[in-house]
Specification:
Helix content: 10-25%
Order of helices and strands: EEEHEEE
Number of strands: 6
Number of helices: 1
Strand content: 35-45%
Structural class: mainly beta
CATH architecture: 3-Layer(aba) Sandwich
Largest sheet: 6 strands, mixed
CATH topology: Aminopeptidase
Strand order of the largest sheet: 1-2-3-4-6-5
CATH class: Alpha Beta
Length: 100
């Protein structure tokens, strides 16, 4: 017997109709860990409205949290810095409390 478990999503941000296959404005990888989306390798131009739409979609898919590691003074919009534990220094978004 085999078991295939969905463990990742690919985010692609575009301007225009997806059927026309416009170039990506931004892209990123979302790893799935229970009710937490681990955001990795995001690059490109992502606006605050894009982020709000993205968080709403994560919530619709059943995620309760999103976490991401950021370097330097970079922040995660609508997130709070994790101050203790295994992910100290990462950022966390409580999607249940997000109302953007």
């Amino acid at each position: 017997m085999i078991w295939l478990e969905p463990v990742a999503y690919q985010l692609r941000v575009i301007d225009g109709d997806p059927a026309e296959r416009p170039p990506y404005r931004a892209t990123g990888l979302i790893l799935v860990h229970e009710d937490t989306a681990v955001l990795k390798g995001f690059c490109g131009r992502i606006t605050r409205p894009d982020i709000a739409e993205f968080y709403r979609e994560l919530r619709r898919k059943g995620f309760r949290f999103a976490i991401a590691e950021r370097t330097g003074n970079h922040r995660v919009p609508f997130g709070t810095r994790i101050e203790a534990g295994e992910f100290t220094g990462w950022w966390r978004v409580d999607l249940d409390r997000f109302d953007g």
